Amino acid sequence: MRLPFVAAASVVVAAMPCAMSSASAAGCGYALQLNRGIVDGTGPRVPSGYDIAQQPASSPLPAELSVFGGAVTTTDKANCRTNGVTVRFQSRDANQPAFLTRRTLTTDPQGGFTVDARPTRTATVRAVATAPDGTRLTSALTVVRVRTYVSATYTRLSGCDLAAAGSTYPAKPNHPVNVEIRVGGIYRAVATGRTDSHGVYRTRWSAGCGTHDLAVSVPASSSNEAGRTLFVRRGVLSR
Q1: Under 8 Å CB-to-CB from 195, ≥6 apart: which residues?
Q2: Residues 6+ apart with CB under 8 A from 158
Q3: Residue of 56, 134, 210, 224 with fewest CB within 10 Å of its CB?
Q4: Tens digit of pLDDT for each residue in 107-145?
Q5: How many Å is the maximal CA-CA distance in the chain?
Q6: Which of 85, 88, 63 minimizes the C-alpha distance to 73?
Q7: Distance between CA 116 and CA 118 in Å, rounded?
Q8: Among residues 126, 143, 140, 110, which one has the least CA distance to residue 22?
Q9: pLDDT, position 184
Q10: CB neighbours of 56 closer than 8 A, spacing ≥ 6?
Q11: pLDDT tens digits for range 173-197
């Protein structure tokens, strides 16, 4: 079974605050923040054989572009420590009733921490900790939306028929898959298939003789956003 989180080396170059936390009522005024960062690089890393899912600019980024970090803070730095605090990074997938701890970390001398764990499914994440004065701290919730990756290989059959085959990541068993042709910037589905129990698909259709810009798309599910391969131009001639 594929774990919903994978780890990879990364460098955080920008941080976007996305959390206020519960704060301690005591004099230390402890709080817990969770940030989402952008990793250095030209684009997301995808499994071998997959294209980057092509989506409008307003759609969610793949999770491979995100890492997390944060800090335990205090309003009294002179008298209240923030280092050495145990922080639990937790997530809850769309179909999960409760949060699960994915990583357990310890804050550095400045009270900060980083989490090099990236979801492969859309998830709600948070951080929880117990401050040195015993106050329980919980960051605000952050939803991380993750696309499905889909691969596509096109094979010419008899006449002007074509076959498309590939797989989905994370695997989408018994999930619809659409073969599309782009005409004048408009996507039009020309064939529909379904993946098998392993998230693999194969479908065929009469493409019509000529040159086509082809792509395969996977509709959104409860656990992932929709994904689409990059368009590939194929010439189809009768034989």
Answers
A1: 167, 168, 171, 172, 173, 174, 175, 177, 201
A2: 239
A3: 56
A4: 999 999 998 777 788 889 999 999 999 999 999 998 888
A5: 82
A6: 85
A7: 7
A8: 140
A9: 79
A10: none
A11: 999 999 998 887 788 899 999 999 9
